[in-house]
Fold this sequence. Notes:
Layout: H1 3-24, H2 29-32, H3 43-71, H4 77-82, H5 88-94, H6 116-136, E1 146-149, E2 155-158, H7 159-186
Helix pairs in contact: 1-6, 1-7, 3-6, 3-7
Amino acid sequence: MDIFRYIQDIKTHLKLTFDEVDGWFKKDKETLNHQPSNGGWTIQQILEHIYLTNFYLLILIEKGSKKAMKNSLNLDLESEMKNYSFNKENFDRVGEHGAFEWIRPEHMEPKGEMSPDEIRSLITQQYLQCLHYLEVMKNGEGFLYKTTMTVNELGKINVYEYIYFLSLHAQRHITQMKKNESETIKN
């Protein structure tokens, strides 16, 4: 396994996803606050949800990165990297809006208490946090700690996969925001 390419691929996915999310903050108020006909969230609510989900995922990623770094003192990193296999199909479905039923916890639902500027700033900080963890675990240490992820039955996933999951989750909602926006254009 080429760990440097693996990490670079995650960084690239993060950059493309976070850049696209950031672009949504530049939309006009009418687009951001349009209530879709299906009764779903507005784009502004979706952006807040992305922030909230990132917030809670980053708590797990931070704990995981610390444990992975601690484990790197005692575990065989080469063996872990050699035996690693990536379940690309299950992960890629995470990024597809509507690909499977997703029941989110209540604490990840938008409350509408933050301005778009606040949310944008926080999401930018979250992107930088992800890059920081990838830098800290630049030699493959992220393989040395796993946490259970129940979404789409992913099971035990390593710290790198958690970061990738965070990026895929945002990607999933980009599709949702595009659907909302297309509805505002029709009206």
